[in-house]
Amino acid sequence: MIRLNIHEAKTHLSRYLARLEAGETILLCRRNRPIAEIRPLPRPDTAPRPFGLARGTFTVPDSFFEPLPDDIIEGFEGGPR
Questions:
Q1: Which of 7, 24, 48, 69 allows an S-S link to 19, with CB 3.0 to 4.6 Å?
Q2: CATH number of the domain that 15 lies in?
Q3: How far is C-alpha 33 from the chain's CA centre?
Q4: What domain count does the chain have?
Q5: pTM value?
Q6: What does the chain look like in DSSP terms, one character per residue?
Q7: In angstroms, what CA-CA distances link 44 with 21, 41, 49?
Q8: Domain that includes residue 22, residue range
Q9: Is 16 a domain residue?
Q10: Confidence at residue 60, expressed as pLDDT on a 0 to 100 scale
Q11: What are the CA-CA distances from residue 27 to residues 48, 55, 69 (Å)?
Q12: Digit-coded pLDDT (tens) for 39-73
């Protein structure tokens, strides 16, 4: 764990970011008294999600492709056509 006073953190933040990315934790202090802890975030999953994960779990009804009623369209457009 890296222990830093606020002035040191402000002055050399870029120096410590690489160590944070490597997994270290920073204990931020004010006058040598701990006030916060800075930890690296978990790395996001970079693998693409496969297609078709929900295949077979639902079907789109035929009514989905029918035109919307006029009152609903008016609601979207802000008034009567």
A1: 24
A2: 3.40.1620
A3: 31
A4: 1
A5: 0.52
A6: -EEEEHHHHHHSHHHHHHHHHTT--EEEEETTEEEEEE-PPPPPP-SPPPTTTTTTS----GGGGSPPPHHHHHHHHTS--
A7: 13, 9, 13
A8: 2-38
A9: yes
A10: 87
A11: 35, 48, 60
A12: 999 888 888 888 888 888 988 899 999 999 999 99
